[in-house]
Design a protein that fits this description.
alpha+beta; five-stranded antiparallel β-sheet; 3 helices; about 35% helix; globular
């Protein structure tokens, strides 16, 4: 079972993303907790692409596919923006207070905590982020 969506790199597309996640939740028979967590993860990843991958005036596309395979949901986020490997980002120091902590990095921390696998590849000028979550 597989489903996909193409989003413009605009913040207004987040509502479409949320609707897509609700749809796959229903079609894949996911629990509300899993849908909530996927929403957090994908919103963080897509907002990062929107904010950092392209110059502000550059209208581009973000591709997302979701597949349920052998009890694992596999999400693949692809864009043609600036190369960025989130798997190489340093771990956020969550022991520090909000005032002491550097800005950024918590979204990647969140993604790593929720998903079982986070893989990045640069293929033919595209960022390909694969996120896997084993279902109970």
């Amino acid at each position: 079972m597989e489903k996909s969506i193409v989003l413009a790199n605009e913040i207004s597309e987040i509502s479409r993303l949320n609707g897509f996640i609700e749809e796959i939740g229903e079609e894949f028979g996911l629990t509300p907790d899993v849908v909530f967590n996927l929403n957090l993860v994908l919103e963080e990843a897509v907002v990062n692409v929107i904010n950092y991958a392209y110059p502000k005036e550059d209208h581009q596309w973000i591709y997302l596919s979701a597949k349920l395979q052998d009890g694992t949901i596999i999400l693949v986020l692809t864009d043609t923006g600036k190369e960025f490997d989130p798997t190489m980002a340093p771990e956020a120091d969550i022991t520090l207070s909000a005032d002491e902590r550097e800005i950024g990095g918590l979204g990647i921390f969140l993604i790593r905590q929720i998903m079982n696998e986070v893989k990045y590849e640069r293929i033919d000028g595209k960022n390909v982020l694969t996120l896997e979550k084993k279902l109970q």
